[in-house]
Write a structure and sequence with these properties.
Layout: E1 3-8, H1 16-31, E2 35-40, H2 46-55, H3 63-70, H4 72-87, E3 92-95, E4 102-104, E5 113-116, H5 119-126, E6 130-134, E7 137-139, E8 145-147, H6 153-163, E9 168-173, E10 194-196, H7 197-205, H8 213-222, E11 226-230, E12 238-241, H9 245-248, E13 254-258, E14 261-270, H10 275-285, E15 290-297, E16 302-310, H11 314-328, E17 332-336, E18 339-345, H12 355-365, E19 372-376, E20 379-385, H13 389-399
Parallel strand pairs: 1-2, 1-9, 2-6, 3-6, 9-11, 10-12
Antiparallel strand pairs: 4-5, 7-8, 11-12, 13-18, 14-16, 14-17, 15-16, 18-20, 19-20
The structure holds aspartic acid and magnesium ion (MG).
Aspartic acid binds near residues 42, 47 and 73.
Length: about 425
């Protein structure tokens, strides 16, 4: 007998008919002899609808109230799912974050899970219930309702799987796995059977709509295998697990674009120690995640600093950057919301040279100008003009031969150059 955590995204819960179908799936799994925990997102479009309500009143809603409100979508979907399971003759109980409880910090809208109590869940499972857990939400030390960031139900699912020591965490959505790139952009995209946590981390943070990044970090930390599957499609998906040698033999696993960021450039800041700290500290204090940073020191003793933030944080980041620029005596601040970050990702980059130069050559061949570059051990990213995003994806997908299944060969000999980044 296994303990299975299944997470269903909003698209799988768009209508009461879909909710009934999900109830059936969960019940079938339980009747096959498993303990089943279902983590549910809000019904399709509901969280967006709720956010729009708040933003219709003000750009900068109080975040405690924002969380109280945006968490309600999951209260509805979990109760409906429990009702649907019961109506099929099953036993089910829904639990909200505070009822479990899922304890988080107080960073409203982006809270981190700190601890999950398992007693109540275990008792309900032992009594034969399918447990339906509300995704995306928790409770802080002062009993305020918190939410875990957009797509946070994935993180709830993995955290619950880790806490209950589940055998697998299945993430169901309307796509049947993780692809070499977005099939809507490149029809020749190929589904991957298996991918490493590290690669998915890069792909998620780079905008591939696969899994919430925190869920993958958590799965990697606790060794929870994640199976990404289609709710109403084929039973084989993509397994996200620990990287092995076979995965390392593939240089590039995926190409992705991220349109969720905007660029801010603070021009002609006096070049002296502490400038970057003064600029980025207030952003951090306001929970604004800064992604790429580029600093160009010019001869005249001034420097330009460009960085990217998520579009949803842009209004706040802009205000803060303008204030900091004034305090630092910078000449001006420029904003560019029409950018896209294009990236290639692959575990094999650790042991294969020339990936970055091939990316630059490929983009140059398409007449695409590169505005910013960043790399990690297993990733090369370039910021380019928004209008070239899809072209860049197709060119890179082709250049790295991603449309063809990799030859099923193991790397020759011992792991000679392993872990040496040769980009
Ligand atoms: N309902 C939340 C959202 O739309 C959480 C989730 O779907 O995972 O972001
Ligand atoms: Mg969702």
């Amino acid at each position: 007998m296994a303990l299975v955590v299944q997470k269903y995204g909003g698209s799988s819960l768009g209508t009461t008919d879909k909710i009934k179908a999900v109830a059936e799936k969960a019940l079938t799994r339980q009747r096959a002899g498993n303990d089943v925990v279902v983590v549910a997102s809000a019904m399709q479009g509901e969280t967006d609808r709720l956010i729009k309500l708040a933003l219709g009143i003000t750009d900068l809603p109080d975040l405690r109230e924002y969380d109280s409100m945006t968490s309600t979508g999951e209260q509805v979907s979990t109760a409906l799912l429990a009702i649907a399971i019961q109506s099929l003759g099953g036993k089910a109980r829904s639990l909200l974050g505070f009822q479990i409880p899922i304890k988080t910090d107080s960073a409203f809208k982006d809270a981190r899970i700190e601890r999950i109590e398992t007693d109540r869940m275990k008792k309900l499972l032992a009594a034969g219930n399918i447990l339906v857990v509300a995704g995306f939400q928790g409770v802080d030390p002062d009993d305020n309702i918190t939410t875990l960031g957009r797509g946070g139900s994935d993180t709830t699912a993995v955290a619950v799987a880790a806490a209950l020591k589940a055998d697998v965490c299945e993430i169901y959505s309307d796509v049947d796995g993780i692809y070499t790139t977005d099939p809507n952009v490149e029809p020749r995209a190929r589904k991957l059977d298996k991918i490493s946590y590290e690669e998915v981390l890069e792909l998620s943070s780079l905008g591939a709509k696969v899994l919430q990044i925190r869920s993958v970090e958590m799965a990697m930390k606790h060794g929870v295998p994640i199976n990404c599957l289609s709710t109403f499609g084929p039973a084989t998906g993509t397994l996200v697990t620990t990287g092995d040698e076979e995965m390392e033999s593939v240089v590039v696993s995926g190409v992705t674009q991220d349109r969720k960021e905007s660029k801010i450039t603070v021009c002609q800041v006096p070049d002296r120690p502490g400038v970057a700290a003064k600029l980025f500290k207030p952003l951090a204090e306001n929970n604004i995640v800064v992604d790429m940073i580029i600093q160009n020191v010019s001869e005249a003793g001034v420097t330009d600093i460009s960085f990217t933030v998520r579009k949803e944080d842009f209004a706040r980041a802009r205000k803060i950057a303008e204030q900091s620029a004034k305090d630092l005596g910078a000449a001006r601040v420029l904003f560019d919301e029409k950018i896209v970050k294009v990236s290639v990702v692959g575990l094999g980059m650790r042991s294969h040279a020339g990936v970055a130069s091939k990316v630059f050559e490929t983009l140059a061949g398409g007449g695409i100008n590169i505005q910013m570059i960043s790399t990690s051990e297993i990733k090369v990213s370039c910021v380019v003009d928004e209008k070239y995003g899809e072209l860049a994806i197709r060119l890179l997908h082709e250049a790295f031969g991603l449309d063809k299944a990799p030859a099923a060969k193991k790397p020759a000999g011992k792991k000679a150059a392993k872990k040496k980044s040769k980009k």
